[in-house]
Every structure is written in structure tokens, then in C-alpha cells.
Amino acid sequence: MSTIQYIKNFLSTGKLLLAGMALCSSLSVSAQDSTVVKRPGLIDAEQDRIDKLDGKLDHFINAGDTAISQQANFIYFEIVDYMQRILDKKVFDKLDRNNFNEQLFYHLRRVNRSNFYRMDETDKLLVHILGCMNAVLQGNLESFYYTNPQVSIRAVGFFKNEEATPKFLNHIASQYPVQVLENHFLYDDKPYATEIISKAAVSAPITAKKYFLQDHPIMQILKRSSDPDVVTLLSIEKRFGKSTNAYTLLDPIAKGKLSLDSAHDIGKDQYRYLQQLLETRINPHPLAEHSLEADLETYSLKYVRVINDLHNEADNIRFANSDSLTTKELYTLMVYSEEEIFTSTFNGCFKRLLAKLDSANGYEFLTTVGFNRFRTFIKMCASYGKLQVFLNTMTPEQRQQLMVDFASNLEASPNSASQAVEVADAFGSITDTIILDLLKSTIKKEFERVKIAKHKQGEVLYGLLTNLFVGDAMFKNNWFASIAAKYQLPPIDKVNFESLFRRNRHNIWQMYFYDDEDGDASFKTFLAEFRDPNWIIQEHKHYVKIMSREGAFVSIYANRPKSEYIGQPMIEKLLDSLQQEPDIMIHRGHSYYAYKTIEKIHNNTAIFILGSCGGYNSLSSIFERSPNVSVISSKQIGTMFVNNPLVKLLAEDVRNFRDINWYTVWSALEGKVKNNKQAYERFQDYIPPHKNLGALFIRAYNKLNEE
Fold this sequence. Notes:
Layout: H1 3-12, H2 42-51, H3 66-88, H4 97-109, H5 120-138, H6 141-145, H7 149-155, H8 164-172, H9 177-182, H10 193-203, H11 205-208, H12 217-224, H13 228-240, H14 250-254, H15 260-266, H16 270-281, H17 289-309, H18 315-318, H19 327-335, H20 343-357, H21 362-368, H22 374-383, H23 387-391, H24 396-406, H25 416-427, H26 433-452, H27 456-465, H28 478-486, E1 494-495, E2 507-513, H29 519-529, E3 535-539, E4 543-548, E5 554-559, H30 564-577, E6 584-588, H31 594-598, E7 607-609, H32 616-625, E8 630-634, H33 640-655, E9 660-661, H34 662-673, H35 677-683, E10 686-687, H36 693-706
Parallel strand pairs: 2-5, 2-6, 6-7, 7-8
Antiparallel strand pairs: 1-9, 3-4, 4-5, 8-10
Helix pairs in contact: 2-4, 3-4, 3-5, 5-7, 10-12, 16-17, 19-20, 22-25, 25-36, 26-27, 27-36, 29-33, 32-36, 33-34
């Protein structure tokens, strides 16, 4: 049961158990109390204003769809009224009620006619705030904040006077510096803001510098800071303004290894700058770490995209821009371009890495890069069939140590969930029984270690990983089965038909084409799939609409590839006017456009076809927007010879009132592409929802964290 449904059930009986935890008896609400009684005040005035957005003041929000209307009334009336009632009961001795109501007022103020029926973020935030209120009563607000740090950052304004809030913000300021800075207005009037904003700015100076305006609150706060790293950061701004790469080289500047002028000059030369980034990144936690990581990714992708685009050329031409790179630079290209690198690009870079290592030891090489992103590298090697080759460069003792390290101390990492996903993804590609047995024993030992330490997040991480060893005859073990039963991965072998028709029995698709060189051909072949008696194609200047003639009511919208900036907003505005949201979304374009499509995902999107690698960052962003979505991704660039038949198979299943069974769909798709050698090779790199261990892990982890 979801948190939202859980709360609804308790509200309907007149009692509420917030976030799955018992409230004290003083919070019990009788059936009579649960009747809404309007009171004068700013919050009630805002509720009335939202109530009238549908044209009537009747304590009912008509969003044009039964399910959405019910959700809107639950969020804007029941939850807000409940918050008001429990505040009026004065069970919160220390909670600043005036501040809470002020924050709630400003939050409701943002609801208007164009967004009142889109409640994804409002729903998520208000339910989380209810959980925070209960955590205040239980005295564990700080630990509750960590169940969903990014939503908690947006909730801290409600609880900015609580002792737990500065502790939480200070702890996550380096991990989520962009969000901490973006939401500065929620807490920047508090004395503790200086330390938190200073820490976030030092971690992400490239983000911070956009706030370097004379009268901006962040600039004023930083000027008051006595932190020597902040003083150095502001000296860069004073000397060079915003147009310099010296900000990212804050670490060697602050440690006296580079002068301001030297750092500025190095930043002008792309190759020297990359070398300096690599040298700085070897340190475990350098200053400006967030900006450093972002720039390494940017520079790596510049190289890799060139190699990707030359995939039809001979290797001497294709890899010309990387042949002069060092082993550290080649390694960096691979691990920082995970979500875009082609199989053949990785294999070519890996081949050159080994050649440059010559007789050197792979384990010792990893020490020279500070084991930076080594789990990503191990996972990629496993995925592309190169793990054993790399391990063979080491001694047996080093091989064992590396794989033990690979699966150990996951909970200690700031991005522990992503590290566990690397392990889960690698497992799906490892066939060596010795390595698998080593991973099995390591995960068991680590689970027992975090359990003794009472590290709840660690228990969840390793508990979920025990699922990897259940069901395999080689690893039949009662211990793994018993632990896995408590931390189950969700079954995602199918999508129920009903979940595709959440809005008035109408299934909506939106396909995002982009203005790249493949777009036009992909678009034409996509349309050709639907030129049959079962479908109607309506052609417009900037987009097309495809509708089913019979069977279930299906509408597919797709912008024309040369109308990215006109067609996509036009479709979105049309769906907004109909108060509809897509149930199925498809990204058709290069992977570096993927983030644009991901940002459009809604809470109830049921299927998302990504068409690119779908690493942790993309997958976590997708599941953050739609927790139960089924994701199809590829290790390489998507191809129309796979995408088009896949889209048609799914469309016909929906039109014929069938559940989407991924085993059946994948078998049928294989049959359609197996006679086309090029298409079949690309098909092998597609990852269906039921085989995506990383996606399974993230969904289960998010669910258990919520519980």
C-alpha cells in the first residue's frame, strides 16, 4: 500500500497514522471532528481560491476526471484541513505554528488555473510534510529527513526552527549543493544559514557563482563567512568575475598548489584543464567536488560523442582523438560517459587502455586514479564482457580484494544507493562462478555487519542485494531466501491494462522527437507502421495524432522532428487544455536530449521508452517522477528498426485490451527483428523492464525507504 493510500484510509476513519508510525492519542480525531469546518484565515482563503479554479465555490474541485478530482480534493482539502486541525490542538509544543502556516500559505499560493490538476509535486511534498510532523512528535525528524533528502530540502522551511533542520542541511549540503542553494530562501534568515550555504557553495562553485550578485542573499551570506575556502572562492570572483574555470580548481588554489592566475590560465586550455581536473579528482573529497564531477563528465562526453558519431568509420579514424590520451584520461572518458558510450566505443577505449597499461598491474592502476568510480568501471567491464580480461592483469590476491571492495561498505558512500545499483547491474552480466561466490559471501558478511551496527539504510541496501542469489541452483541457501523475503524486489513482468487508462478510459501517448540527423527518417518509418485499417493518422503542421479506429480508445501524439521547439509545447498545451497527461512516453533522439524528455514525466506515467543507456542518474530521475513506471532502455543509441516495431506491438496490445506482458512483448519483438542483422545486434543491447536489475533495485529501495 502506498503512503498516500495509507493516509487516505486513516483519514476516512477519522484517525491518521502518519508515515506508517503511531501518533500519540492526542492526535486522534473523532468522526465529528473530521467534518470540514471552514475558519477565517489566510489558509482557508487560499483553499477557497483553489476551490473556485473550476468555476464554482462548492468545496469540490472538478478537474474533469474522476481520479484526478478525488486526488485534488484529498490534497487541497483533506490534508490541509488535517494539518490545520492538529496544529489547532496544540500538540506540537515547540513547533512554530506561525511559520508553518506562513509556509503552507506560500505553497498553496503557487497553485493556479494552469496547474491545479497537476498535483505530483504538491502531493509528494504535503504527504512528506505530514511525515515530518509525525517525526517531530516522535523526536526523530532528522532521521526522517534522510528517507527522501531531496523532498526534505523543499520541506525544511516548515520546520526551520527545529533543532534537526540545521543538522540535516549541514550534512547534505555537499551531497545536494544545487538543491540546497536553490532553496536558500526557506532558511536563509536563520543564523545557521551561513555555515550551510558556505558548504554548498564550496562544493558547487559553478552553481554558486550565478548568485554572485551584489544584493543577492547568498552573496551577502558568503561575505559574512569566515571560512577560508569561501574567502578564496570570493577572491576568484573579485579577480575574474564569473567567466573563469578557476572556480572548479578551488581545491589546488586553496591548498597553495596553484595561484589564481595559474588556475585561470589553465582553465583556458582544454587539455591542460582536463589534466588538472584528473589530478585534483584523485583526492577522496576535493573542494568543488560537485562542479569538478560535472566538468569531468562534460569533457568526457565531448570526446566520446565524437567517437560515437564515427561508428561507421575505420578505427584509425574513429579513435584518432583518443589515441594520444593517457591511461587515466581513457579511464575517465569511459566512467564519466556511462550513459552515452556505445558498446564499440567502450571496447575501443578499453583496448587502448590495456595496450597503454602494457605489463602494468590493473589494480595498481586503479590506485593511481584514487579508485574514483571504480564500481562503475567494474560494472561496465562486466556489461561489455571485459571484466575477466581486466582482472587477469592482477594477482589472484588483488582480484579477490577488488571484488570484495566492489561489494563492501556501500552504505558509507554519500551516494550509497547508486553504488548498490552498480553491484546489482554488474551481477546480471557476471558468469564466472568464483566471482559470483565471492560476491555472495561478501554480501552476506556485509549484511550481518550493518545489522549488528543497526545501520537501517545499510540493511536495506544489502537486504535487497540478497535477492540476486535467490532462485539460482548454484546458490540455494536458506539464509539468502529468508533475508530476501523481507527485502523483496518488485515484480515488473507486466503492466496491467487498467493502469494505462487512468483518465476517463482514454490511453494517451506522447513521443518526443528531436532535431537531430536521424529524426526525419525515424519519424517517417514510425508513421508507416500505423498506416493500416486499425489506425487513423491526423497530420498537422508541427505534430501528428494517431488514433485507434476500434477497440480501446488510444491517442498517440508525436511532434515532427524539425518542430521540436514548436510541436512539443503545442502537444503539451493541447493535453493541458484537455486536462490529460500521457500514460506512455517515448524518447526518440540522441541520449544527450534524454534529460529534456525525462523532465516531462508525470506521476502516473506507466511506460517510458528511453532509448539510451539509462544509468543510475537517469533511472533515479525517472522513478522520482513516476515511482511505478516500466522503463525500456538501451546500452547503445536506439534504432528505428527496433523502436518502431516495439511501439506498434505495445500499441496493438493496448488497443486490444491486453495487459503488457514484457516476456511476451520481448519474444514477439525478437521475432520481428531477428532477420535484420544490424537491427538484431542493436536489439541485444536493449534492456526490457523485467531484466533491468538496476531499475528493479531503485524501485524497491525507494519503496522500502518510504515505508
